[in-house]
Design the sequence.
């Protein structure tokens, strides 16, 4: 059978095997899967680099800002210190100019009040004894500084600082002019910081003043600082000997922030990789499933293509959903012509359209029951095909009944074979019946020949003996005895054949004569061709009647054969005409030939036994025919046809009541 | 040597009645119930005519005939045929059978036919015997005598023969005498009658 390639057909290379579920491009797809992974890694590195660079810039900026702020704080503090120094120097000048001590004191108080970092202002005499002390007598001072001032004898216009005390107090002193004594002011570094470091600095940095060894004198910081935190140190000497200003950025969130950022990036990267891995896994599964599906689809379509059974799926409206190539070959239409086609289908037999439609409706009503039936399809080239169709419900994976799946098998050949066999059987049966008649005649002849030949020989032998004058009674008696025995045997043979013939009991059934005639004619068609004779029929409706069909067929065969054989010798036409017509209470059958006719000599003894014009005829045929017709209570007659042939006329009464089953043989 | 007619038929009545018929005309006959039995009995010295039935049980008449031909049995064969066997008998006739008769046959016709067959067979047999005799005598001639005989048959004179064979006329005369003596002929004319037709 020719196999059609369809769009869904297998296009695999010939050496590819049907390995279900083998992904055949694993390497290539793995490389593809690596690309996003690498992209993620590159992105993470890039982002990390950018973050690192940005944070490094930030750190740089922060350090710069720290330094700037530190310088600013230093300037502020130095300014304040110099303001205090100026105040002290002015007081010293005013004292020297003879200003009333009370006024000085009140000024000093005012200054202390407005500059709270100044703890005290103390007046000493030239000997270094305290004369007055503000704000109170017990105000802290630095007597050591005064002694040093007194001893040094160096008098400057600017105050001199003493060493910074444990409590963070620094004292500045100035000798009054004209050796009138000394004046000191003690400054609390702590208060200095408290008061003159603004809040926005304090918010960001811890500010402290400490000595070189790291001992802190004063500090202002709102939060704890870490030794590792970025800090800036500026020497605060002068004015304060051995001190430095240290400004430390608080443990800021920048590190934490970038750590968080990096962490987030890392986490995201890990998440992305994990997601990728999951995706890859699922993609791999999907690929495997796809490969399996593809392979299964290819396998399935290959199977469908190689099926010799036609497959056709249709939905409830009858629309064709699918046909395989065997079906296409069967009906001669392409799958593209058929798929989507609504009934009536092009391959339906025009005479069976309604029947097919009705069957489809019946199928739809009968629910989901598989059914099988035989029908005819029409091939595209007009050929009629016998098919066996098995219809099964088409149920999808959700269990919904979608339509019908039909397997169609071409049974034309089987049907034809069966029909041929049946016809052959029928022919055989009929031929058998005829052969039986013919053989009976032949057997009769052969069997009878033996005793007859023997009888003739004995008779001739005895004549010879008598002619020769040999009249030995013993010899003659022996011969006559044998002769008589052979005569007996001939008689037995005849009786035996009569017995055989009698065994066939006629069987009467309701029979349609036109059917009998048609069957006989078709049975004799080959014979007719051999005789170059055309058998024509002219059948008018005649009601069915009781008859033995087989016996009637034999009569007809006999008569038609006689007609054909009569035309073999001499003819004026090539037709044997059979007529059937009703005549009152009778059915009439005429068999007319266009042969040589019947001689007058023959016509008289036509129905006698052993009367034959044929070389090999037994002269039994017409006698038997008449017996059969008489058995049907009818008559067999003949008359010359108008133009030279012969017409045999069968008259069959259509009376009620059956004939008795009596022997018909002659 | 008397003539013997062999009747081969599986029908006992036919065999018996034919035997009776032949006997009534003074002819000896022998009956065989089947072709096999008849073939098994070959060769038969006294076989001068064979009556064969066409239709027999195992081995049909024509088959028996074929085997007889294969065994070089030359006796004439007369077939007996039934109603429908005529074509078969005609074929057998073409293959060399003597004649056929359709059953039931005209009583004495078969006897006359058999007599005719026997006569012809005997004549053929005598002819065969004479031919065999001449052949035997020819075989006794020497090559030179055969040469001389061939020349004698062409009608040459002794002198011509001597010239042709390059021998003396006397020698030719001696050979000539021996040829005639060996062949049992009185003169050249008899010799020619004896050998002339088939020994050129």
Sequence:
């Amino acid at each position: 059978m020719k196999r059609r390639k369809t769009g869904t057909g297998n296009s695999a290379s010939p050496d590819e095997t049907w390995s279900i579920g083998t992904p055949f491009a694993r390497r290539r797809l793995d490389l593809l899967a690596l690309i996003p992974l690498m992209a993620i890694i590159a992105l993470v590195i890039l982002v990390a680099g950018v973050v690192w660079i940005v944070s490094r810039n930030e750190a740089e900026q922060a350090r710069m800002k720290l330094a700037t702020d530190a310088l600013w704080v230093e300037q502020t503090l130095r300014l304040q210190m110099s303001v205090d120094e100026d105040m002290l120097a002015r007081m010293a000048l005013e004292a020297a100019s003879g200003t009333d001590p009370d006024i000085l004191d009140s000024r000093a108080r005012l200054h202390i009040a407005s500059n709270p970092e100044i703890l005290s202002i103390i007046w000493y005499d030239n000997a270094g004894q305290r004369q007055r002390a503000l704000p109170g007598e017990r105000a802290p001072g630095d007597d050591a500084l005064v002694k040093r001032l007194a001893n040094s004898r160096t008098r400057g216009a600017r105050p001199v600082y003493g060493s910074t005390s444990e409590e963070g107090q620094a004292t500045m002193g100035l000798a009054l002019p004209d050796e009138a004594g000394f004046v000191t002011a003690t400054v609390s570094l702590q208060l200095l910081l408290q008061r003159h470091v603004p809040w926005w600095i304090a918010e960001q940095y811890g500010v402290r003043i400490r000595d070189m060894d790291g001992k802190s004198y004063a500090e202002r910081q709102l939060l704890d600082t870490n030794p590792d935190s970025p800090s800036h140190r500026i020497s605060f000497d002068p004015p304060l000997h051995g001190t430095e200003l240290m400004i430390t950025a608080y443990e800021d969130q920048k590190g934490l922030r970038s750590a968080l950022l990096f962490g987030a990036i890392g986490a995201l990267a890990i998440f992305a990789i994990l997601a990728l891995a999951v995706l890859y896994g699922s993609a791999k599964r999907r690929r495997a499933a796809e490969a399996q599906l593809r392979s299964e689809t290819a396998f399935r379509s290959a199977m469908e293509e190689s099926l010799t059974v036609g497959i056709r799926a249709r939905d409830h409206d009858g629309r064709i959903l699918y046909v395989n190539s065997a079906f296409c070959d069967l009906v001669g239409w392409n799958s593209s012509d058929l798929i989507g086609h609504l009934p009536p289908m092009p391959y339906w037999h025009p005479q069976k359209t309604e029947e097919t439609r009705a069957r489809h409706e019946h199928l739809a009503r009968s629910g989901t029951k598989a059914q099988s039936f035989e029908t005819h399809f029409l091939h595209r080239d007009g050929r009629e095909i016998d098919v066996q169709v098995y219809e099964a419900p088409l149920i999808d994976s959700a269990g919904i009944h979608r339509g019908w799946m039909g397997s169609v098998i071409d049974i034309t050949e089987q049907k034809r074979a069966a029909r041929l066999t049946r016809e052959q059987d029928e022919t055989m049966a009929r031929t058998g019946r005829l052969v039986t008649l013919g053989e009976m005649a032949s057997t009769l002849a052969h069997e009878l020949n033996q005793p007859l030949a023997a009888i003739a020989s004995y008779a001739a032998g005895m004549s010879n003996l008598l002619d020769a004058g040999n009249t030995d009674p013993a010899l003659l008696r022996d011969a006559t005895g044998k002769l008589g025995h052979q005569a007996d045997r001939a008689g037995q043979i005849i009786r035996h054949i009569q017995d055989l013939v009698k065994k066939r009991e006629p069987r009467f059934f309701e029979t349609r004569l036109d059917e009998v005639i048609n069957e006989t004619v078709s049975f004799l068609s080959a014979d007719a061709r051999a005789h170059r004779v055309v058998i024509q029929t002219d059948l008018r409706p005649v009601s069915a009647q009781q008859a033995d069909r087989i016996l009637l067929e034999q009569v007809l065969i006999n008569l038609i054969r006689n007609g054909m054989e009569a035309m073999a010798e001499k003819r004026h036409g090539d037709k044997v005409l059979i007529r059937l017509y009703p005549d009152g209470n009778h059915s009439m059958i005429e068999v007319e030939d266009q042969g040589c006719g019947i001689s007058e000599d023959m016509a008289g003894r036509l129905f006698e036994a052993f009367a034959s014009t044929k070389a090999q005829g037994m002269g039994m045929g017409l006698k038997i025919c008449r017996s059969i017709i008489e058995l049907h209570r009818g008559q067999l007659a003949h008359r010359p046809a108008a133009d030279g042939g012969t017409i045999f006329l069968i008259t069959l009464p259509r009376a009620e009541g059956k004939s008795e089953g009596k022997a018909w043989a002659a | 040597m008397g003539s013997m007619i062999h009747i081969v038929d599986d029908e006992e009545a036919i065999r018996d009645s034919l035997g009776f018929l032949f006997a009534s005309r003074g002819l000896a006959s022998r009956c065989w119930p089947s072709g096999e039995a008849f073939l098994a009995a070959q060769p038969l010295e006294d076989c001068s005519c064979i009556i064969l039935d066409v239709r027999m049980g195992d081995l049909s008449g024509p088959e028996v005939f074929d085997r007889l031909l294969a065994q070089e049995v030359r006796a004439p064969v007369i077939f007996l045929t039934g109603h429908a066997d005529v074509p078969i008998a005609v074929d057998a006739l073409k293959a060399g059978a003597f004649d056929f008769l359709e059953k039931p046959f005209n009583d004495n016709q078969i006897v006359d036919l058999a007599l005719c067959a026997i006569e012809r067979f005997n004549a053929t047999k005598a002819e065969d015997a004479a031919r065999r005799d001449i052949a035997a005598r020819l075989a006794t001639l020497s090559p030179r005598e055969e040469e001389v005989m061939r020349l004698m048959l062409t009608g040459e004179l002794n002198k011509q023969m001597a010239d042709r064979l390059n021998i003396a006329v006397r020698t030719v005369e001696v050979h000539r005498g021996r040829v005639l003596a060996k062949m049992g002929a009185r003169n050249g004319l008899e010799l020619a009658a004896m050998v002339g037709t088939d020994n050129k």
Observations:
- Confidence is low (pLDDT under 50) at residues 1-25, 657-666 of chain A.
- The interface with chain B takes residues 442, 445-446, 449-465, 468, 470, 479, 482, 485-486, 489, 616 of chain A (CB under 8 Å).
- Chain A is about 50% helix and 20% strand.
- The first helix of chain A runs from residue 26 to 96.
